[in-house]
Task: structure prediction
Amino acid sequence: MHQFKEGTASMIHIYAMCALAARFSDDPVFHGIARGSRGSIYISEAVRLFQQSIITPSLESMQGLILIGYYYGGEGDGKAKHIYTGLARLHAETLSLWEIPKDGSLLSQEEHRRTWLSVNIASDWSAIDISVEPISLNHGLDVDLLKFDDIAFQSLDPYLVQGTYSSPQSPYNMWAYMARSLGIFNQTSVLLRRMSQGSISFHDYCQEGVVLEGRLDEWEKSLPPNLRYTTENITSSVNQRLGRTFLAMHIGYHHFRQILFFPFLDARRNHDNMKLTKNAWQCKRSADIISDILRHSTDTENCDLNCFIYGHIAVISSCVHLHTLLFSGNTGALSMARQWLLLNFKYLMGIKSYWPVVEHSVARLRKFQNCCQDSVSDPFVLDNWMARFVTEHTSYPSERQDSAANTIDPALQSTTARSICAERHVPDHDNNAKTGCSIDDLSHLLYDQQVTSEALVNHALDWLLE
Result:
């Protein structure tokens, strides 16, 4: 904002940020324009301006490219996102961005580090989005990243500019911690895809997964007391204007855990094996915590998680809750799954109008739910479609094909699973999903013991897809 007021801000940045921010505006100038469509005129100008300097790399060009790529991610255009983030990576490599300028201010040096981190993150995530293994950059995250506290960098502390900054006793260095978990996500995504394609066996997946689980555990243990997931720390981070960053760090961590353990939901696995059962439980625990984080983001002021990636995470968490509704015979677990699922849907309803890709993700969730009802196969089998569904947050996978080889053993189906799948044929008074219902109507249905889980899910999805 300081550069904007001085008239020195990059116009590429301004137009790209307007393309992203216009959807959230209540300005009358946007009256009658769908929120998800407001950015198109701004992004066209940002792209036009960038094309004039495509072979003139700079710190500003990299930052602008990341913003443009992010816009296309929200549109569900994974290829365009990959191209623009790829250009950002090429610009970074051309300038050897990892070589932090010694003659710049400490603030300028930190801006270089954080831009390099953003390029790394965007490059890896966009590659996964189009089913490509991330490229290992020659100077990746081994570089000494993020010297400074998030609060100081966010507030542009004048001491930081003058070079006299010293780190506080309990720093809020969440971006640094998020950077350390990036490699775990990359390896998990690649591992899931390899198993789904038959390149490795489930046994091999378990062996490699233990290593990744250990790294995730170590990451969590390494968090200082003020950054652990507690209600008190949420409140403290909000007071420091870092509530969104705090929740983003923890929802990312638990998303990595839920996808790592997702294959253990496959009903064909040996449920007498305590290790496999424990891993399935870990998947569900992380899905529950994700729903709790979304609850805080909705209920706590200045904690809203309105980026499209969190819509994808909410959809995967919802799939895990659907698994509980299908296969659990535990009354308490069923009740909690219904509550978490409804909370996720409430969150998705709040952000789907902002991002076209979230609306598509919700539609995919409906297709997945239909698969749970109609398929003679276990819908949680990790085939290639499911691996893409779980890991790719801006892609549009084709229709899923049933495989006779994946047919579920009837002995593994609980009474709950059979009854839910049979509910397509129950009388109309239980299953006639009424469109146009409000969240209050759904909340009422949640506690109505006469309403089956299937009817509740159908009501909620119809509401989401209106």
Notes: The CA atoms of residues 193 and 277 lie 22 Å apart.
